[in-house]
Amino acid sequence: MMISNMAVIGAGTMGIGIAEVAAAHQCRVKLYDIDTSAVTAAIEGLSLRLDKRIAKGKIKDADKQAVLTNITAVDKLTELHDCDLVIEAVVEKLSVKQDIFKQLEDICTEDTLLASNTSSISITAIAACLQHPERMLGLHFFNPAPIMKLVEVIAGLKTNQAVLDQAVELVTGWGKVAAHAQSTPGFIVNRVARPFYGEALKIKQEQLADVHHIDAALKDAAGFRMGPFTLMDLIGIDVNYQVSQTVYQAMFNDPRYRPSLLQSEMVAAGLLGRKSGQGFYNYNQPDDDDSLCYESSQKQTPSQIQLSESNHPFEQLLSTLQSVCSIKTGSLNQVGDTILFQTVGHRAETLAQQLDKPVCLVDWSFDYKQSKAVNICFSAQVSELDKNHIIALFQHIEKQVLVTDDSPGMINARVISMLINEAADAVFNGVASKQDIDLAMQYGTNYPQGLIEYASHIGWQNPASVLTELYDWFGDDRYRLSPYIRRRL
Q1: Which residue in 119, 365, 421, 462 is the catalytic one?
Q2: Which of 122, 190, 379, 417 is catalytic?
Q3: What is the Cα–Cα distance from 403 to 401, expressed in whole angstroms?
Q4: pLDDT computed for residue 290 by the predictor
Q5: Staple partner for 334: which of 226, 241, 306, 392, CB 3.0–4.6 Å?
Q6: Which of 451, 371, 461, 459 is nearest to 415 (CA)?
Q7: Which residues, including other chains, have CB under 8 Å from residue 484's CB and lie 6 or more apart?
Q8: Which segments of 356-470 are extended strands (E)?
Q9: Contact status, residue 406 vs residue 378, Cβ threshold 8 Å
Q10: What is the 3-state secondary structure (H, E, C) of 233-248?
Q11: Spatial contact of 449 and 463, defined as CB atoms under 8 Å apart
C-alpha cells in the first residue's frame, strides 16, 4: 500500500516537524491537536521558518507553497478516518497515548498503520490496548525532524513484519536513515546515549572537573559535536532528566541508568537550560565560556624527545612532534624523565609507582590529528619542567591543552568506554544489530564514529581495561562489563 494520505497528532515541535517532512515529499498531512490554537500556531511558525529558508536561497517560494498546501488543520479525530498512516507525537505519558490509539482503532480502517513518535515508552505497552496490535509500531524522529536524518523504526512484540517493511520504505523515501530496533526502554539512541550525560554528570559531581572543562574535553579533544552540558542545556535539563528516569525505571533500576542527583537538583531549582536563561551555563552572561580551562601558551619546547615506533593513532599524533623538536627512537614515549601513555583506565600515579618513573596520560580522541585539543593528566612525580615541555609540545602542533586531575579513565576514555559498553550490551540483548546501532548513534546524535566500529578499531581490550579500572575504583555495578565485550577479549 502506498502511503500518500496521513495524519500527525500533536502540533508541538516534533509534530509539525514530522508533518513538514511528509508534506515536503508530496504526502497529504492532516494535523490535529486537542488544542486547536496550537495547530494554527504551528502552521504559522512553519510558514515563517520556510520564509527564512527562502531568504537564504535554500528553497523557492513554490516549495513553501507545496508544503503548506499539503498540510491541513483538523479539529476532530474522526477526520482521520481515511488516513493510511497516523503518527502520534504527544506528551510522553502511556495512558494518554493509549487513549488516543484506542480511539483511532475505532475511527480508522483496518489497514491504517498506527505509529508513535515516543522516545522511550514501550511500543508493546502502547499497543497492548489495541485489538490489532500487529499494525502498531514506533517511528521515532529526532529534533529537528526536517534536518535530522535518523528515524528509529521500532517493533513491538506483536508488530507485523510487513508493517515494519512498509514504514522503512516510507521513511527512506523521505530521505531518512532507518534504524531497526526492538521495543525496549530508550530503544537505541536514548538507551545507548545515557552515559554521555550520566557519566559526565557523575564526573562533575565528583568534582574532578567543571562543566567547561568536561565539555571542552569531550568536544574539542574527543571530537563529539557538542559537550554533554551544552547539549543538556539545549535539550532542556528537565526533558533529559525525564528520559533518564523513564529508562531507569523501565530497566528495573539498573545502576547503569541511574539518574543524577545533580540533575534532579537543577530541575527542582528551575535551572532548565537555554529555555530558562540558566542551566549548567548562564545565558544571561555572554562571557560564560570555556576559554579559562585551557593552559596558557607561554612555555618552551624541549630540544629532544623519545618516541616509540608504532602505527597506533596516539603514536601517529606524537609523530607530528618532529616538526617541533628532534626525535630519537626508543621503546617508550618520553619527554625528559616523564613517560607518555594513552590512558587505558589506570591512574597515572599507579603506573608511575609500577615503572618508578613519572607518567603523563593522554585522554582518548576519535581522531587525534583532527582534534582541536588534548586532555592530559600527570602523576605527582612529574617535574614542572616536564609538565611545561609536554604542554608546549602539544601547543606547538596547534592543540589546546586541558589538564585534568589524575583519576581512572580521566574524562573521554571514561565516557566513551561507557558508551561502547552500552552499545555492546544493546547488541548482546537483541535491541538492534551492531550496524543499526552504529547508524543510529552517528545519524541520531552526530557521534564522530559508530561505537562498535570504533571499539573494533582501537581494540576491545581498551574499553574493557577502562571499565575494569572504574569498577575496581568505585565498586559500582554501573561499570560491569558486557558479555559482548568479554567474548571479544
Answers
A1: 119
A2: 190
A3: 7
A4: 63
A5: 306
A6: 451
A7: 424, 425, 427, 428
A8: 359-362, 373-378, 400-403
A9: yes
A10: HHHCHHHHHHHHHHHH
A11: no
Instruction: Spell out the residues 6+ positions from residue 153 whose beta carbon is closer than 8 angstroms to its own.
Output: 137, 138, 139, 164, 167, 168, 171, 178, 179, 180, 181
SS3 of residue 81 by DSSP: coil
Please enumerate in sequence order all residues whose Cβ is within 8 A of that of 332, keeping only pairs 6 or more positions apart, or say none.
306, 308, 339, 340
Distance CA 359, CA 365 (A): 19
All 3 cell numbers of residue 386?
616536564
Whether 398 sits among the annotated catalytic residues: the reply is no
- 469 assigned to active site: no
Please answer whether residues 275 and 311 qualify as being in contact, where contact means their C-beta atoms are separated by less than 8 angstroms. no
Of 269, 245, 27, 4, nearest in space to 120 by CA: 245
| Long-range contacts, 5-8 (Cβ 8 Å, 24+) | 5/82, 5/83, 5/84, 6/30, 6/83, 6/84, 6/85, 6/86, 6/87, 7/31, 7/32, 7/74, 7/80, 7/83, 7/85, 7/86, 7/87, 8/32, 8/86, 8/87, 8/89
Residue showing cell 507545496: 66
Which residues of the chain are under the pLDDT cut of 50? none
400 closest CA partner among 225, 203, 213, 201: 213
Give the contacts of 447 (CB within 8 A, at least 6 positions apart): 224, 225, 441
Residue with cell 540533575: 263
Nearest 5°: the CA angle 79, 80, 82 is 105
Categorise residue 269: left if φ over 0, alpha if ψ from -120 to 50, beta otherwise: alpha
Cis amide linkage into residue 144, ω under 30° from 0: yes
Residue 44, C-beta contacts closer than 8 angstroms, at least 6 positions apart: none
DSSP 323: G
* pLDDT the model gives residue 289: 64
Q: How many CB atoms lie within 10 A of CB 328?
A: 9
Handedness of CA 106, 107, 108, 114 (dihedral sign): negative
Q: What is the pLDDT of residue 26?
A: 94
Q: How many other β-carbons are positioned within 10 Å of the β-carbon of residue 231?
A: 22
Q: Is 292 exposed, middle or buried (0-12, 13-18, 19+ CB in 10 A)?
A: exposed
What does residue 282 show for φ and ψ, rounded to 5 degrees?
Answer: -100, 110
Residues 6+ apart with CB under 8 A from 182: 154, 155, 430, 431, 432
Active site residue 312: no
Mark whether 140 is an active-site residue: yes
Per-residue model confidence (pLDDT) at position 456: 96
Q: Which residue of the set 20, 152, 295, 422 is catalytic?
A: 152
**pTM of this structure:** 0.94
C-alpha cell read off for 439? 547508524
